[in-house]
Amino acid sequence: MTTVGILGGGQLGAMLAPALQDLGADVHVYDPDPNAPALRRAAHAASGSWRDVPRLQEFFDACDVVTYEFENVETEGLAQLSGLDKLLPSLGVLRTTQNRALEKEFLRDHGLPHVDFVDGRTAEELPAAARAFGYPAILKTARGGYDGKGQWRLSSSVDLEALLSTPARAALDASGWVLEEPIDIVLEVSAIVARERNGDEVVFPLFENEHREHVLDVTLVPARLPDDLAAEAKAVALAAARALDVTGLLTTELFVGRSARSDPGQVRVFTNEFAPRPHNSGHVTRKACTFSQFEALARILLGIPLVPPRLVSAGAYCMANLLGEVWEAQGAPSSLDLSAWEGAPDLLEVVLYGKSGVATKRKMGHLTVRGVGADEAISSARALREAISRTGPRRSV
Ligand SMILES: Nc1ncnc2c1ncn2[C@@H]1O[C@H](COP(=O)(O)OP(=O)(O)O)[C@@H](O)[C@H]1O
Ligand SMILES: [Mg+2]
Fold first, then answer.
1. Disulfide-capable partner of 176 in 114, 142, 206, 248 (CB 3.0 to 4.6 Å)?
2. Model's pTM, two decimal places?
3. Count of alpha carbons within 13 Å of 382, Cβ hemisphere only?
């Protein structure tokens, strides 16, 4: 039996674990939080910090192969381990993709389409760099940001000065920063490439992503994108996976939109960021595709060949995230009331991640529906989420 270790015990690990177990693997999970949901899915659960080298070494020693579901794993601890060749995707891939500055430099060095940017190390360098770069701009910490955290829209030097007198300054100093041009976004898409040890690769159908307050709200597949832009988005994702020499999954987030700095009238593709792991948008593959992103990664880790993934049927599929707000609307119950599922045959799945503690904007679950067309799938996913929010104990009193 192959033993697979997963670093990180969130919902991505909780969905990856059963995919591995279905193919006969023994799953071990490591997370600093002893309540992390994936720990309950594992044959062996380890809890320790990312800097606890002896514990990490023990974890690695017990596994044949190790992957990660969280790209903010601190690499300083990992770098000290022996047997790092078990880590897939490699430590080098993790280092590049967890740092926006390195990611952007990678894009520039490989001639891949990206937004105009400048990067730097300290907050002190920022005012001069921003003056030279020009406003408006989006400032992001190089490391640690997610779901819009660690980024700020700046319309002038006044915004920047105000920001630099807040605790954000320390975060910028600690991790470095990237300043980028705001794109006038027409739509956002993501592409998941699954790449085997021997370099064989497949790419999932493109996902169209709609964010709300920087958090993914819904994902639609197939994405509504003209053929030429779709082909370019897939080509960029494949080129990046090859250049990074990824074994595993590489998710590429792309903007389709206009840049005010170059060809303002032209709708183009810009690479935003990478995630070397399953991705929230890829949850839709669980129902929409012949195999899911989790099965794809499981096969790669276990050395089972991939075939190109396809949509299981015509029509459109929409995944809607269930954030903490849905639980709050029901009065924060420990188990969500799903009676709204009755009479909804197109609701293909609801997945609840089993996180302890409801919080606003926290990703707590998702649902996936099938519709005849894109608009119908999106509106029905949103309507079902709304219907779930309207049920439960709070409403019945
Ligand atoms: N340069 C940009 N121009 C326009 N919108 C942006 C830009 N950068 C980020 N955004 C918006 O913010 C969202 C989150 O930014 P992103 O860089 O993907 O960070 P994260 O997903 O790690 O929070 C993007 O999906 C997009 O909607
Ligand atoms: Mg993102």
1. 142
2. 0.96
3. 12
